[in-house]
Amino acid sequence: MFYGDFQAIKEVTIAVPARRITALIGPSGCGKSSFLRCLNRMNDVIEGARVEGDVLLDGRNIYDSRTDVVELRKRVGMVFQRPNPFPVSIYANVAYGPRLHGIPDRSRLDAIVEKSLRAAALWDEVKDKLRQTATELSGGQQQRLCIARVLAVEPEVVLMDEPCSALDPTATFRIEELMTELMADYTIIIVTHNMYQASRVSQFTGFFLLGELIEYDHTPKIFENPQDQRTDDYVRGRFG
Amino acid sequence: MMLFSAQRTEKLAFAALWASAAIVVLPVLGIIAVMLYRGASGLSWGLLFGAREGLLPAIVGTVLLVSLTALIAAPLGVAAAVYLNEYARAGPLVRLIRLAIVNLAGVPSVVYGLFGLALFVTLFHFGRSLLAGSCTLALLVLPLIISTSEEALRQVPQGLRHASLGLGASQWQTVRRVVLPNALPGIITGLILSISRAAGETAPILFTAAFYSLTSPLPKSVFDPILVLPYQLFVMATEVPNVPESTKWATALVLVVVVLGINLFAIVLRARLRGSRRW
Question: How many CB pairs under 8 A join A and B?
Answer without folding.
Answer: 67
